[in-house]
Amino acid sequence: ALCVTTDADTGYLRLGAGDDGTVKFTVDTDNLTIDESGNVSMAGKVTATSGTIGGWTLGTNLLYYSTTIDSTNYRYYIQGADGDETTSVFGVQNLTSGTWLYQVTYTGDIVTAAGVTVGNGGATGSGHAYNVKTTGNVSVPVLYMLSSNSLALGSTSYPTRIYGSAIYSNVSITVSSDERLKQDIVALDSAHDALFDGLRPVAYRYKADPGKLHMGLTVQDVEAAEQAAGLAPEDYALTDWQPEEDGTRYGALSYEELIPLLIQQVQQLKTRVKALEGG
Questions:
Q1: Which of 130-167 are b and which e, b meaning 16 or more Cβ less than 10 Å from the residue's Cβ?
Q2: Which long-range contacts (CB under 8 A, 24 or more apart) does 132-136 make?
Q3: CA atoms within 13 A of residue 196's CA, in its CB half-sphere
Q4: Alpha carbons 23 and 162: distance in angstroms, whole number
Q5: Whether the predicted pLDDT of 124 surpasses 50
Q6: End-to-end CA distance of the chain, in Å?
Q7: What's the pLDDT score for residue 123?
Q8: Is residue 144 within 8 Å of residue 127, measured between CB atoms?
Q9: Cα–Cα–Cα angle for 123, 124, 127, nearest 5°?
Q10: Is the pLDDT of residue 122 over 50?
């Protein structure tokens, strides 16, 4: 039997079913109000595992909205993908390819289809702030905070390039040079004297930015001087050939590798001057 209880003064309505009067639906002005315009005001919560709300589909630990943009089907997820809340707190998925365009994971990471991750990726220890994926789908930290409270840029597994019309720093660059990190330490010899004598300083303009003259060396000249001195360019870190995005390889020169050579030449020159002065 259906039991209906109302109270005109309080606006109370209760619907029950069965002889025991089990409550199935209750409306009162304190907990649930439905006005003449259909507006619903309620206290408490709604529990549901299926159905739709304003175009959003309900599922177990899942709320999503499907749409089509430029003939491609997309789905916006909130709280998990396919019921797994550890996969995504919020995400946008291309249903045609299955690719996630954007995800905010339960660990707080932000992941994009371009392979960029902002967050620590669930890692412990050093906090990775910005990760990218390589063509081999390997996640590589690019910008992250070390446990020593210093900010790290790049990965020891890959070369790091910085592009710009100019690069500025308000401090000098400090290069790791601890003897404990080195091996096969030997003094520079006469072959390095010959290398120094074979270097050809030049002035030049860059084709991409011909506005100003630069002074320096060319990789081709340096490698020719190394070979003339009996030194193999591939054995030294003075020059390098790294491929650009289009596969073209351009030579690069590490000028700091020349500093020890300059020190050696100055020391030898001082020795000769001292000898000539009879010191």
A1: ebbbeeeeebbbbebeeeeeeebeebeeeeeeeeeeee
A2: 134/158
A3: 18
A4: 69
A5: no
A6: 122
A7: 44
A8: yes
A9: 75
A10: no
